[in-house]
Amino acid sequence: MRKIFLFFSMILIAAALLAAPLKVAFIYVAPVGDGGWSTMHNEGRLHLERVFGDQIVTDFIESVPEGAEAEVVFRGYAQRGYDLIFGTSFGYMDSMVKVSQAFPNSTFMHCSGYMTTDNLGTYFGRMYEPRFLSGLIAGAMTKTNIIGYVAAYPIPEVIRGINAFAMGVQYVNPEVKVHVVWSNTWFDPAREKEAAESLLDIGADLITQHQDSPAPQQAAEDRGVFSIGYNSDMSAFAPNAFLAAPVWDWGPFYEYVVRNVMDGTWTNEQYWGGIKEGVVDIFVSDLVPDGVAKLVMTMREAIVQGLFHPFDGPVYDQSGALRYAEGERPTDAELLSMDWFVNNVVGKIQ
After folding, report:
1. Which CATH number is 190's domain given?
2. Helix H or strand E encompassing 146
3. Which intervals hold domain ABC transporter substrate-binding protein PnrA-like (predicted)?
4. Which domain holds residue 147?
5. Residues facing residue 150 across a β-bridge
6. CA distance linking residue 68 with residue 64, whole number of Å
7. Domain total of the chain
8. In a shared domain, residues 97 and 134
9. pLDDT tens, position by position, 3-22
10. Backbone angles phi, psi at 180, to 5 degrees
């Protein structure tokens, strides 16, 4: 009788374990309501809740600085038995490597990084594709031929986006210069608005950005000029200025990762999806003329079909040196380590 009791007890325990929801955590570098980067990652988290229901439990912590504080947060989730932990900022990389090695029973995914461990993978999107498309709009709509770009940090991710945007601008208007000002922030609305205003003061009649707040868009609206956002549709913040934005859609990718963890097929891959995979795209507002919007959609399809790449040669850098000749295009390794500006960018990599 005792053996039978133990047998059924084991079955009940196993069933309970199988029924336990997957615990998934997200760590954000900015407020979840920033209207940009963290908002879109949180939309991906909400997508998981809609798709998986009571099969998962999700949690998040917002506004976590990169560095020692982030390590404490990652460690805390791992200690509480979270199965899958997403870190959504480049500067979390060292912390995630360290914590993942200390907690091999948890799975970690780092956004925009390049380091992996046995239980740490990386993921990102080919944002340079819609960045190029947004450059087509900017180049077609500027009148002063001066475009301002408020940039976050001088890392390859940001540099690559600036260059892709500038290539799009150059594609339709070789006379335009893209002026870069560094804010050295991911989310600091006051500082980012001030940086945008400094670009407006030199004659820029269009502002774009690589930060998480809509502040540069609002600076453009205040001055009566156009803007191109980032991360999401920011038209609500600057309805008379906002033309377009390269945007993220993390939901399907997060679903893919969760399913792999659930069925035991997860690997520490380094994922880099583009428009074709649905991770990135471009949002175009009604302020963009039909002819320009049609060009954008035509070039978008060419990118999806593999017929065009934003860095197809010839590509020259600021010094005039030929980086990619006619018919050449960069490798992924070259894109991921980009540390130079194309020839129509004004500014230094500091």
Report:
1. 3.40.50.2300
2. strand 146-151
3. 23-290
4. 128-248+280-346
5. 181, 209
6. 10
7. 2
8. no
9. 554 554 454 444 444 569 99
10. -105, 135
